[in-house]
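Email to the structure team, subject: DUF11 domain-containing protein model.

Hi all, the expression group asked for a predicted structure before they design truncation constructs. Nothing fancy, just the tokens so they can compare against earlier work. One-line instruction: predict DUF11 domain-containing protein, return tokens.
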Amino acid sequence: MKKVALILFAVFGLALFAAKSVSAAVRCETQYGGNEVCVTTGQLQINKKVWDPDNSDWVDNLYITSHKFQTGDTVRFKLTVKNVGDNTLHNVKVIDTLPNFLFFTGTTASEFTIDHLDPDETEDFEVEARVVSESQLTVNEACDVNIAEANSDEDEHDKDTAKLCVTKQVLGVTTLPKTGPTNTLLILSLSLFAGVSGLYLILLRR
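Reply from the structure team: attached below.
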């Protein structure tokens, strides 16, 4: 009797472990300094990346030492939605939220709906934003995260962020023309010419 109970308990434990393995997955991201951080997700995963103009690549985050965007710059984001479970997900809604120093350009949508997402299926979306005017930037330099969320009718939910920084434009220093011997000689020549011309006119009048 004890053996039967132990067998049933072991079978139940294995089934529970298998169920947890199916419903849980892991998403990993590279953080500042190169460290990788992984988080547990459900069957629905969303991964958000930002375009790095300096290296022409999609990255998880752009930090203070990375490329900084300025007023008028276009910022591109990529959202990757994936079903990592065994069941089809329905009516998956994806919403992208911007920090206050960015606004949507209108060339791309900010919300998306996937009618059904089959197991192991992936959908990619691009979102385009632009940096606000300098008068709307409260500080010379700012960093914040952009948030993307995904929800399905099966109560599966996930969210991810991408960090970036903006900075005010640095105005160039106006260089005044140098005053050298050439300019001085020109001024003296013009003054001499004006003096001679004036004397000549006076003599003519006499």
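Residues 43-167 form a domain with the Immunoglobulin-like fold (CATH 2.60.40.10). The first strand starts at residue 25 and ends at 30. Ping us if the truncation boundaries need rechecking.
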